[in-house]
Amino acid sequence: MPSLKELSRKKELLSGGHRLCPGCGASIIVRQVLLATEDPVVISCATGCLEVATTIYPFTAWRVPWIHCAFENAASTISGVEAAYRSLKKQGRIDKRIKFIAFGGDGGTYDIGIQALSGAIERGHDFLYICYDNQAYMNCLSTSSLIMTKYGLKRITEVKEGDEIYAFDQKTHQLVLKKCTGVFDNGIKDVYELTTLHHSIKATANHPFLVLKRNGRGRENNLVWKTLSELKPGDQVVVLKNSKHFEMEEIRSIK
């Protein structure tokens, strides 16, 4: 194992000058992970603070091959790259040893990304997955957003850690009460308005929506998570019908 003195001489693979906050845990984690390997590395990074703050167009802080993917796709993206690498190596078209790493936040890992991660593990792909859990699942809603709490609607700015708020249970498709684990102000970001027949919501481009995925004739449709940036008019999204039930509505506009 190299000493701290030896590590200090290594080239940083995440450069300075990015927009992450001073002392942010995400950048510290990335730097420590990348310092730990001598081999070439390919990175898959889910939508979130780490992605936004290190790759503001047309700049990037990454000094390694890096792939941005949707909120829930970090594991499936890197597993595809790793599978392509194994195929090329088997064909003799590449001989170097390459390591593969995926970074995702708590929302992109434990919630809408768990299916991609569990599938990649079950298939036996060789990669390292890093979940930087800030217990926030953030970057999504404007300050005018209303949140359903145990005691009625509240503006998101009035919600506090420990408050009981309603959340969608993916197993039962019902609303359930859960404790808020944290509220964070992420500064000024572009906000878009998504409108259906009876609903509208203002959110940032990486806010996840539960949408209907049509799998073709003779195959059962299913629900998947997509970020607002991946949606288009005509897509079917899950909306709240009443205090207990949900239904599908077609997106009319996003602007």
Describe the 3D structure.
- The protein has 255 residues and is of the alpha/beta class.
- The protein has two domains: 4-132, Thiamin diphosphate (ThDP)-binding fold, Pyr/PP domains (Rossmann fold, 3-Layer(aba) Sandwich), CATH 3.40.50.970; 146-254, Endonuclease - Pi-scei, Chain A, domain 1 (Beta Complex), CATH 2.170.16.10.
- The protein has helices at 4-8, 25-35, 49-54, 74-90, 106-111, 114-123, and strands at 41-46, 66-69, 99-105, 128-132, 146-149, 152-155, 164-169, 174-179, 192-195, 200-203, 208-213, 222-227, 236-240, 246-250, 253-254.
Q: What's the oligomerization state?
A: single chain
User: Regarding CATH, which class of the largest domain?
Assistant: Alpha Beta
- The CATH topology of the largest domain comes to Rossmann fold
How many DSSP H or I helices? 6
Fraction of helical residues: 10-25%
Rg computed from alpha carbons, rounded to a whole number of angstroms? 20 Å
Q: Specify the biggest β-sheet.
A: 4 strands, parallel
Strand order of the largest sheet: 2-1-3-4
Q: Determine the N-to-C terminus distance.
A: 53 Å
Query: Low-confidence segments, ≥5 residues, pLDDT <50?
Result: none
General shape: globular
Domain Hint: 138-241
Keywords: Oxidoreductase
Organism: Aerophobetes bacterium
GO biological process, one term: intein-mediated protein splicing
Quick synopsis:
The chain is α/β, with parallel strands linked by helices and 255 residues long. The chain has six helices and 15 strands. It has two domains: 4-132, Thiamin diphosphate (ThDP)-binding fold, Pyr/PP domains (Rossmann fold, 3-Layer(aba) Sandwich), CATH 3.40.50.970; 146-254, Endonuclease - Pi-scei, Chain A, domain 1.
